[in-house]
Amino acid sequence: MSLLVVGSIALDTIKTPFGKVKEALGGSATYFSMAAQHLTDVNLVAVVGKDFSKKHIHIFQEKGIDLSGLQISEGKTFRWTGEYGFDLNEAQTIETQLNVFQDFNPQIPVKYRYCDFVFLANIDPDLQMQVLDQVDSPKLVACDTMNYWIENKPDSLKRTIQRVDIVIINEAEARQLTKKPNLVKASREILSWGPKTLIIKQGEYGVLMFSDHSAFSAPAYPLEELYDPTGAGDSFAGGLMGFISNIGKFDENSIRKGIIMGSVMASFCVEAFTPKRLIDLDPQEIKGRFKEFKHLTFFEDLTEII
Fold first, then answer.
1. Residue 109 burial (C-beta neighbours within 10 Å; 0-12, 13-18, 19+)
2. What is the mean pLDDT of residues 3-19?
């Protein structure tokens, strides 16, 4: 089955306590697609400037990611500069240069409009709705967002949420969106707007999933080597949606497995700067870490005491 992602491609300058990179390949659509391509066919819609390196384009092409929807516009590519302290859960934005991304007008190629699965990465919710108006009855749509859109376009964002099946946000965004400090109450409110599933990212503490009738929790993978958390959330979404697209099912059991696959991809992502770790991944590494997640979370039923 095919998967469509609409989001950003950027050049990132990042500093963490463990190193730094300058103008490295990044962006939500990049991390998402580099994770998802291990599991399914990925079609990408984004915009870059004339300064975007052919070397970077070759990386996408080499991984079989369809770039028919990539717009190359006059001007410079979107750039982001950020820094992390030892608390790697939160980045400090030093500088954002939107450049050609400021006028991004996603045009979905005809051959993409019939994709079974769609992921709306972190872009303006009005653009997310514009994408939804161009696709033809996908089986499942998921979206991400951020605090900027929650603060500045809450009504547009709510209209987008009403049209999707899965919402993926972090816990601070869930509280900000609903003005409820309790995540269970916040989840109930967001689900009442229309989506079937809410997935709340908790950084180094893992992931929570809520639906109308159940909840599921998955831990983060305990890592000894962690260099850069940039793109971890997008890699998580890529693993989740790539898995669902691969198996063609999105019942609750499949979504739970997809959450673990997303957590697997996020754990690899943070082991290196840029999407390099995702690009170089071997299928056996993915399978092996998925099994490790199962061992990490498994326990026997209680029979001895009660």
1. middle
2. 96
